[in-house]
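seq:
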Amino acid sequence: MNWDDVRVFLAVARAGQILAASRRLGLNHATVGRRLDALEAALGAKLFDRRPNGCETTREGADFLAAAERMEAEMLTARASLGRSEAQLSGTVRIGAPDGFGTAFLAPRLGTLTERHPGLTIQLVPVPRAFSISRREADIAITVERPAQGRLVARRLVTYALGLYAASLYLDRFGRPETAADLRQHRLVGHVEDLVYSPSLHYAGEILADWQSRFEISSALGQTEAVAAGAGIGILHAFMAAGRPGLERVLPEREIRREYWLTTHETARDLARIRTVADFIAELVQAERALFG
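struct:
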């Protein structure tokens, strides 16, 4: 059995499509298909039901997936044991993060790590969505809830604050609310509700039970820009709003608290490059904990 064929099998099983797996592996579609054919021939079993809209593992494929992941874990452990020297760090680490934390906090700070380790490539994917570590969509995921399922290792990074903010130019024009009930008379900026990817992000009701946004934006970064431009009052991350010229805190007694978690797969936590990046992120947050409110 060829390990490269097993690696292809894992990519297809996690992506659910040959085309998506081929892109992730940097191989063409036909090569991935041939690798799967070779593996099925070697095992004497059909691993996937291949359909136009994707691939679904058969019963034999599901059984083999568990074995393949154990093989992968052994391979990662072996590589980690050979690469414990920080000077030897190389390869790629992909970080999936919420757009606000990824863009406003991580993006300006991760360059230091690539300077320290020239052989290391960091891929930062800061978008408002959840990442699956189990399906290897990212090596490290920053989440707003502690993962409850999967072979994952999670550590709490920090508790962060959110509050009501508005541009001074907006408040000068429309007045400053004195109570939460006054918000009903204002233009409110919020999430696109059906695109909220985590239950913990449905937090507007903690400020006002019948919160009705007039301007809905699917990203925290977009909401911050809109509020800063005078579009209305919004619930913003304190670490993104802090020090932003022209922004004022509204009803400061109304505060929301949430948490960021750092998650890796248990089979990869000892891989030197992933461990180093995860520790670096944790150290960054610890050093600037006060920023998060």
